[in-house]
Amino acid sequence: MRVMAQIAMVMNLDKCIGCHTCSVTCKQTWTNRTGVEYAWFNNVETKPGVGYPRRYEDQEQWKGGWALDRRGRLVLRSGGRVRRLLSLFSNPDLPSLEDYYEPVTYDYDNLISAPAGPDMPVARPRSVLTGRPTGITWGANWEDGLGGAPQNAGADPNLSGEWAEKVRFEFEQTFLFHLPRLCEHCLNPACVSACPSGAMYKRVEDGIVLADQDECRGWRMCVTACPYKKVYVNHATGKAEKCTFCFPRIEAGQPTVCSETCVGRLRYLGLLLYDADRVGEAAATPDEKDLLDAQRGVFLDPFDPEVVAAARESGVPEDWLDAARRSPVHALVSKYKVALPLHPEYRTLPMVWYVPPLSPVLDAVDAAGGDQDDPDHVFAAVTRLRIPLEYLAELFTAGDADVVGGVLMKLTALRSYMRERTLGEEGDESALEAVGLTAREAEDLHRLLAVAKYADRYVVPAAHKEDAALFATENRCPVETSGAPGSGDGRRVLLGIPALRRRTTDTPAGGRP
Amino acid sequence: MNVSATDLLLWVAVPYVCLAVFAVGHVWRYRQDQFGWTSRTSQLLEHRWLRWGSPLFHLGAFMVIAGHVVGLAVPASWTEAVGVDEHAYHATAVWAGSVAGLAMVAGLGMLCARRLLTRRIRLGTDRSDKVLFPLLSATVLLGITATAAHNVLGAGYDYRSTVSVWFRGLFTLSPEPGAIAGAPLLFRLHALTACLLFAAWPFTRLVHVWSAPVGYLVRPYVVYRRRTVAGAPRRRGAGAAPGGRRTV
User: Fold this and answer.
1) How far is it, in rounded angstroms, from Cα A512 to Cα A92?
2) Tens digits of per-residue pLDDT, A52-71?
3) CATH architecture of B5-215
């Protein structure tokens, strides 16, 4: 047993209102720079919907993640080592900018410099890449709130056949929820495994997956290998950039920016202990539907004395073990088993998990004329309605509707029990028993899901200074442009900001001012 | 043989200066500019031309480089010693060289075309590219024209007894400018532009050649790293402190 600690996230999707605050604050922190205008380390997608970049979940097309070969061995879907080196010159499976969108800026100058005239001057959009006027035709969540669903939502790779038809033609009666996505910081990261130069790595201490800007040579294999398409090419520097899990904040014991600013308070951060020796074996589980249990099997119980002893031996500090025991992520993922991974069938063992939303089922109960406050109606819907249950199963359990159904039943029972308790009634524990919860556990889970305060949602132990004596966030601004004076001392986290002035319409894309 | 001052300048001074710039330039760039050491991919912005142009150019270039190594570095006496006579060598060189050269020219043509015709790429072209692309194109075109004019259409020119002798002389520190001074103009121009290309090399995207990731073939898939510790020596590149690793 080789115990490693990972900082992981859970999102409670029922609470996501799709406000995009996480995306915007993330962008302002990390990607408001030339070359990554189109990159969203965090974005919120409407489901059903095609996602960002378009149809990224279709791995037949994009070849992301891992697959098993004929002999049951784990191989990157985009091909083995030799094949990767042969595709260095032209990567056949790389999304082009059209699969994302052409970044634009606005002709703001026109607002103040337009000559006097009868019409109000307008700021027209211009392409950031060419400086020319352009139309805005796509974005990171173009189909927000099922906008354009008749045209687009049917192309969601998770929908097939008649579901696609239903979403396309009856979208007013269909379901809708929001799915915030960021890098999964996987236990078995395909991007790291595909990087020919070894520039991408997983940190030993906290499992954060990073791309070393000094060692990246722009071979762009990570973009293809990541099935979630959360590694982006900076088109100005030609290097890969990705979500950092806000490591300077995490090292200081603070939550990520997306978590900190989440309006719905739906994000949870905490440690999970796992056995690094069993990662490969779990990722190679033959049946896709067993991957969820296999990944849960890799996680270790921080209350188990044997695990604690092994963790100490592996060098996990004492306060981290304490944080692992208080981890809300451990509770939701391993103890109550209400959180599920996004697309476990990609075999990367992702570490951002989701409590599946009950709201699509409640919508379906309403649409069928039922009472969504009556747990029997909801139970019936969970067992009988194919949509949306199978849709959620496509997202979170490799198509196993029973597992998603089980979680939704648990949430329904919890909802009805706590509703009765809140209304001053005794509370019917039989429904709880049916889903395997005691009254005490139900209250604990309810507190975690519904009323958890900042300190309960984010249990982030600060990094240890004896491990790394100099910290990015210590005593100085961690962010400097590479062109700034004094950056040559190598003590700052250089973000690869080109020394170019930010483009105006006169000096587009890489043009020197 | 009498050697003029011009020949000394062109065939001794210029090559040595270019080689010195090549060597020192690479050391300087590697130490100072790990961040800029990249292939500077533009596939994201344009992939239709690149899909054919880039593999054609690169594979053609590999063959062309191999051909130059054999033609320039290996003396004719060695190939004859292993039983390859001048006729067989010449036939192979012309045939294989033509195929490789045409692939490289076609590929480079497509890469230049996309750089000129695609506005997104053209505007993202930096100063080093504006030197590199014309210089590389000139070298390649002069090379293939020399081969075509003298060895495919012409009577045949045995550069191994002239250009190659000069080339080897540079590295054995016994330069023989006289050996190349009499070569046809196209060969001499090709050699000169090649010298300039080597001088420009460390300051352009060509440095990515030295980062060819062959180590990937034997590396474990998942790379783990510890958080960098203060004062620990960096694995490579300049700067000693941990923040120097740019991580996004």
Assistant:
1) 31
2) 999 999 999 999 999 999 99
3) Up-down Bundle (1.20)
